[in-house]
Fold these 2 entries.
Entry 1:
Amino acid sequence: MDTTLAKIKTIKEKNEAILQASDYFVNADVFSASSIASVDTDGDNKADFYSVTATQEEISASEIELDDDIDGDGILDTEDTLPYFNNTNN
Ligand SMILES: [Ca+2]
Ligand SMILES: [Ca+2]
């Protein structure tokens, strides 16, 4: 299997990958004009999730939609065993 995940061989490499993912989520600000969402993993202008501080009124007033395929690989999150890993972009 020739995938990015297969390249992670050691605990150190796994921990570094987790750290990189954590940094991405903490520092993402894709929807800079809004405070209700900040992460869009596949870049399709649909948010991975809404902020825990976002109210339903703010979400309803916003044009930001939730993404049902976070990694953009064509497999819906409800079916995707790795919803944050697009295995088609190697
Ligand atoms: Ca998206
Ligand atoms: Ca997917």
Entry 2:
Amino acid sequence: MANMNEKTRTDTVSRREFLKTSAGLAAATMLAGLGGAEMSGARAFAAAGASAGAGASSHGAGIPSVTLNNGVKMPRLGFGTMTLRGDPGSVADAIALGYRLIDTAMIYNSETAVGEGIQQSGIRREELFITSKLWKTDMGYEQAKKGFQTSLDKLKTDYLDLYLIHRPSGGDWKGSWKAMVELYRAGRIKAIGMSNATLEQMNYLIANGEVKPAVHQIETHAFFQEDKEYAYLKPHGIQMEAWAPLAEGRNGLFTNSTLAGIGKKYGKNNAQVSLRWHYQRGVVAIPRSQQHGHRVENLNIFDFELSDTDMAAIAPMNLHKTQFPEWS
Ligand SMILES: NC(=O)c1ccc[n+]([C@@H]2O[C@H](COP(=O)([O-])OP(=O)(O)OC[C@H]3O[C@@H](n4cnc5c(N)ncnc54)[C@H](OP(=O)(O)O)[C@@H]3O)[C@@H](O)[C@H]2O)c1
């Protein structure tokens, strides 16, 4: 990013442009392109945002936030960018629609597109919550610092909101954590955490890591509910975050009859029921979509509530095993 004075000037102009363009674009797109159900949902989403802003803490366009164990606020719903490598337009559109948490990683090769999408959106950096992740090839103290800087350069930013060790399955991950603690203390990262860590690794960091992980990002969805992990993280004050919150549609998630039956009562589809389920469990979800209509749908989960009976009906969908064995 440019120096602070230049950035502040740019931000002021960008903010005005953003209000004129992206909010207007979102409203116009919804009015012009969406059917009645989606439009009324969009209105309800805006209303939910307004009330969250007045009461509970909210982020950006009204997505409620959770306060992490270090006081940093994180949106409870975000946008995943795996496979969106050359697609800044999707990121700009997601921001215009109201997503504020953008999840990327060095290994997705999407950081450049995310950086360009953010610039296209014109939104102020401070309104976003950007997550990136350190890949295996950047393990170790020195290499982690280099990897972090490369991510910042691609994203065209001078700090990250959240930085995770992506897959600590080999190499000097403790050295990486030490570097991340230093960057955190220097204010270059607002919160640090883990992804795909073992229980032993989490225990080690809680006891010896100097800074407790704020987030653990893991595979979780209706078919892999990770109840034990959930029960472990909660008392430690570590936020659980779902990757593949829609299981990428595997095992027939988008046509599953249990989810469809629940959704029918509320006029919602299986993706929306799934995302609402994560939300009511207190798990942050980061669904990805290359389709504008799906991005709208995935935001449109704040105008209905799953009953205890609905939640109980989803519990037995748990198959207690990963749907991504190729990544284990
Ligand atoms: N830490 C890790 O190891 C890790 C691993 C995997 C992923 N992640 C992160 O988590 C994010 C989300 O996970 P994911 O991308 O694997 O999978 P996902 O979000 O569970 O599923 C994405 C798939 O669902 C479809 N989809 C999205 N919304 C839909 C809707 N409303 N209706 C029907 N289909 C819909 C998308 O298709 P369309 O594009 O056609 O909408 C896409 O094929 C990633 O993008 C990445 O940021 C992290």
